[in-house]
Specification:
With 472 residues, the protein is mainly α. The protein has one domain: Growth Hormone, Chain: A. Helices cover 74% and strands 0% of the residues. The protein has 18 helices and no strands. One of its GO terms (cellular component) is membrane. InterPro entries: MFS (IPR011701), MFS_trans_sf (IPR036259), UNC-93-like_regulator (IPR051617). This is Major facilitator superfamily (MFS) profile domain-containing protein.
């Protein structure tokens, strides 16, 4: 599908007011909610369980260094697989790409299991490599689906709902671990029994992905068709990917994406270094519950089409960066002290709360930043093909930052204090470049005119329908 004339957004992606849209009946098993649920279950089974393992601190290991190095390998390979994901989508479709993307997660869990139980290290690295090859495609495919399948007035809620499943893995993992390790008030590694459950769930991921509707089968309440086809020759598609990456608006967001995702390895490592096994399990469980609440709240705010897009985006940006800065300053003070005092906090330890609460806030902040990055890509995309490219670039950029983060956090000085210092610096340096992009959202005269035209057309259709029904 071509973009509409005049440089505006494709009708699938326009920010329209819901009450102006003539609603169309849809079958439940073709609806955007159904597909969001399937996508969420895939997210739960694959990256959700990956997050569950890492939210225990270093994949549940006693020391974070091997697991952080393995995760760095995963994200390095994801940079490559994300870049080529649009080409793979051309040949196997977006549904095929999602199925392919779920395959490599179970070997990663198997590697952590054998390391935890037998001390084997090579399978951790092999599993990480297989995960990286498939996960880059999965990340790009799921992001494109999450942005292109829903109606514009449901996109924020769908993003929050879909990402809830990702955190559902963390909630499950934390609950299981809390039950198995509730009496372990010392530092150490978690029970290997947990990994058997994780392996089984991740192995089910490809089967769940088979239930997703292809774009042509999706039915939206606004009547728009979903098209995520790539028709370009692979060489041309690679050229378009590079050109999209080099656009000034995307380049200005690189630091914001970096500060959003670099944090993950940092706060997971923080949890593994300074807390007991059962405190880590509690942190995994509670932080996910808080993040789910915050993420869905942000999604509902971004969907309030009664509020101007410029206001929605600016308020969300202001709240996110202000809170994130406060949490990083707090954590910087703590790790600077911990490097000298070398504590191991348990929930029965004095001072546990002041060290534990920042971890909860940082996890919630990660969810808010994560969802907002998807919102940014949706605003930059002008047509469904750009959704795929921006999705792949976002996930590739995230992977590059996380490869650096996990790689550096495998070095002791960065694990203990350096990672937090870098996160604070990234946060401060990202604010102005990101604002230069966000301040234009909702001020594009062509896009606004196109959205209003769509609204007028839909209103006209409703009026005609009412007249015809009265005549009948």
């Amino acid at each position: 599908m071509a973009s509409p004339r005049g440089g505006g957004k494709h009708p699938e992606l326009q920010d329209v007011v819901e009450k102006r849209v003539a609603k169309h009946p849809v079958r439940w098993y073709r609806s955007t909610f159904y597909n969001a649920t399937i996508l969420g279950l895939c997210n739960f089974a694959a990256p959700g369980i990956w997050i569950a393992m890492n939210s225990l601190g270093a994949g549940g290991a006693q020391k974070p260094y091997l697991v952080n190095a393995a995760n760095a390998l995963t994200f390095c390979l994801m940079v490559v697989s994300c870049f080529f994901s649009s080409i793979l989508t051309k040949y196997i479709g977006i549904k095929g790409a999602l199925i392919f993307g779920t395959v490599g997660y179970a070997p990663y869990a198997a590697g952590l299991y054998t390391n935890n139980r037998y001390g084997t290290e090579w399978l951790v690295l092999l599993g990480a490599a297989l995960c990286g090859i498939s996960a880059g495609v999965f990340w790009a495919a799921e992001t494109a689906i999450a942005l292109a399948y829903p109606e514009p007035y449901n996109r924020g809620k769908v993003l929050g709902y879909w990402l809830t499943y990702r955190l559902g893995g963390q909630i499950l993992g934390g609950a299981i671990n809390l039950g198995l390790n509730a009496d372990r008030d010392q530092a150490g590694k978690v029970s290997y029994t947990v990994y058997l459950v994780f392996i089984a769930i991740q192995a089910a991921g490809p089967l769940v992905a088979l239930l997703l509707n292809r774009p042509s089968k999706v039915e939206r309440t606004d009547g728009q068709k979903v098209d995520l086809s790539i028709f370009n020759h692979p060489v041309e598609e690679m050229r378009l990917m590079v050109r999209t990456f080099l656009r000034p608006k995307y380049l200005l967001l690189l630091l914001f994406i970096g500060q959003a995702v670099y944090a993950e390895a940092t706060f997971f490592t923080y949890l593994s270094l300074w807390f007991s096994v059962r405190a880590r399990a509690l942190g995994s469980f509670l932080s996910a519950l808080i993040a789910v609440t915050c993420g869905n709240g942000l999604g509902m705010w971004l969907d309030r089409t009664s509020v101007k897009l410029s206001t929605r985006s600016r308020v969300a940006f202001g709240v996110i960066v202000t809170l994130q800065g406060a949490w990083w300053i707090w954590t910087t003070v703590l790790v600077t002290k911990f490097r000298h005092t070398r504590p191991t906090y348990d929930w029965s330890t004095e001072g546990f709360g002041h060290a534990f609460v920042p971890y909860l806030f940082l996890t919630a902040g990660f969810q808010l930043n994560y969802l907002f990055c998807y919102f940014l890509m949706g605003q930059l995309s002008k047509d469904p093909q750009e959704v795929i490219r921006y999705s792949a670039l976002l996930r590739g950029t995230e992977s590059a930052w996380q490869a650096v983060s996990y790689g550096l956090n495998s070095i002791r000085i960065f694990a203990e204090v350096g990672g937090v210092y870098i996160c604070l610096g990234l946060w401060a340096s990202a604010i102005i470049p990101a604002w230069l992009v966000i301040r234009h959202f909702g001020n594009d005269a062509v896009a606004v005119a196109a959205a209003e035209a769509v609204g007028e057309d839909q209103t006209s259709l409703e009026q005609k329908s009412e007249v015809q029904s009265q005549k009948a």
